[in-house]
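Sync notes, pocket subgroup
Present: LS, DG
LS reminded everyone that the earlier model was apo-only. Rerun requested with nicotinamide-adenine-dinucleotide included. Inputs:
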Amino acid sequence: MTENPAMPTMLNPEWEERIVPERFAGQTVIVTGAGAGIGLATTSRILREGGRVIAVDLNTDGLGDLYREFSESLVLVTADLTDPDAIPDILSAADNRVDALVNNAGVMDNFAPLHEVTDETWQRVFAVNVDGMMRLTRAVIPLMLDAGHGSVVNLTSEAGLRGSAAGVAYTASKHAVVGLTVSSAFMYATQGIRFNAVAPGGVATGIKLPADMSESGAVRLGAVNANMPGLAQAAHLAASITFLASKDSVNINGAILPSDGGWSAV
Ligand SMILES: NC(=O)c1ccc[n+]([C@@H]2O[C@H](COP(=O)([O-])OP(=O)(O)OC[C@H]3O[C@@H](n4cnc5c(N)ncnc54)[C@H](O)[C@@H]3O)[C@@H](O)[C@H]2O)c1
């Protein structure tokens, strides 16, 4: 327990990352939202496990230290995933070879319930969390079909599992991620491409909340979210994501994996 009851408990603080040497050797992995938080931790782990990473973000400054260490195997692509014109640049950075795709970039909403949500909030959240994910994956699938293999890991959320973790826009977008994942898992199941999703609970990252938070939504969600067992580290999520991205998850397709310290079991 933390000493300050207002501070969330940190889950599993004693845990240490165990690198699986060469798990991604010879593989190219695209990670979106790689500049911070969960995407940065995932990029770091894949590099240290021998993979080549195409790291995509609006802002790639946070990847500077990794780039100095892994300049041979890290390609930085500064791009806005809501821009369809960004897709060819990402594919060409990957030399049109993609063994795994981690669709991690995402943005939060302002907790607004449906009668309060604005078109701006709805469109901003869907543009990144759903449209950007769909477009990049659509472009990558033909490469994976040609290669006869591929693993796609999508970031959903606790909000993709139930209705009480965020506002309507984020909740609907993360349920859409579940739909993208299971439809694709079914459609490509016999062609060597696997689609899975990770549903984080609370994670200690710098993910931003908008300035215009809904008071009614925050009050309603606050009561339920007090059940959250605690906050995970970004590296905890990287452990779940890299498992699904790697061939260790060879027989797993269409899974929505809660990585939340048990929050979804409440
Ligand atoms: N942090 C949490 O508690 C939590 C909980 C559940 C789900 N998630 C999900 O996990 C994923 C990662 O979250 P995080 O906490 O690491 O967030 P973060 O804000 O720390 O990092 C997300 C990264 O995505 C990038 N990004 C955002 N929009 C982009 C765009 N249009 N084009 C390119 N890059 C863009 C940002 O610049 C940022 O570097 C998101 O999909 C989020 O919804 C996070």
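DG: The longest strand covers residues 193-200.
LS: Residues 110 and 210 are 6 Å apart (CA to CA).
Action: DG to write up.
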